[in-house]
Amino acid sequence: MSLYAIAAAAIALTVVAQIGLLGKIAGQSSVTPSKVLVALLPSVAIAGAAGFHHGFTLTWAVVAILAILIGAVVSVYLGPPSESKAGVATRGLESAIAYAILLVIGALFVSWIASTIAAFSTLNYWVVVVFIVVAGAAVAFGRGSSRGLAKTAAIIFCVVAVLMLVVGVVGGSFQFLGDPVIFYNQVGFGQILIYGLAVLVVTALNPGLREMGGTSRPAVIRGAIITAVFTFLGYLGLLLLFGGAIQLPSVPMHTVVAYVPPVLAAIFIALLSIVGAVGAAAVLGNAVSQSRSVTESAYHIKRRDLAVGGHFIFAAIVLALLASAALRPEILIPLGALLAIAGFIIGMVSRRRHGIADATAETPTQEVAA
Questions:
Q1: Rounded distance between C-alpha atoms, residue 147 and residue 145, angstroms
Q2: Which of 75, 118, 150, 193 is the most buried (most CB within 10 A)?
Q3: Whole-structure pTM value
């Protein structure tokens, strides 16, 4: 299986990187549901990561899906964070926090993809992380065929989710959904809700998603509904197949993986590699946008004059290091939520303060005009 897996991952990631570097640059393209789905992939990863670690059940699935859907809708009405009229220092702090949020949740997503690929092969986890991040950086830097790659990744995500449901229905049973065959180290419903709230906060305050919401609310809402529906179908298929509960790592999971034919495993790895590279590209693209905005506002340098490559290299290194550390979801999820809340509070206070200052400054002019 190793040879097939290596070839599949290498070919898929190389093709994606070449398309990103050599494909046609479309400039400022519109927000589409497929791009929203790609932007929500880190939320899907963090929603499932904590559950799979403790013992994923139908309750986890429902809470995770509602958290992603509600968080995406809330992000639409919060508006883009770049609308702040704050000074350079405050905008810089907001962008730095947004940068950290994107890399933290992006690290969990890359880790999730890399662990799955490693589980279906004998590939080294750290090597997979590096290759996914490098391919994602190439796509984000080149910006070639970004809309097409996002649509491809979205289609793969939806098709894989449906196939997982079919496999679960054929090879599993509905009778164990509410009464799992194996009870893992379950956590209480209250703790599940806390994790769900953290996922909701991270999703709602995701800077990239908020920017999309400021451009097209209907597209974000449609994309969020599509993401939630197909994510739930995939979760449902896994729960049916594994008797109502899943834990990683576990004996049942390793047993199922061992019986997957090498060719099918290679195809799955290739598809997952494409989704991982495109998702990493979205994270890196949004993160670099935050770091460049700070440099522009501070030094009044135009975008084309910036050392863009340096921004991408630094962001890619940080993302790879965070993903390689394989930190527990219990650490990264609350960290991402706390960073998101801190950034939102700073932005809200700053906008309110500068809004009052602007109104005060305009009052004398209005009186003179009268």
A1: 6
A2: 75
A3: 0.78
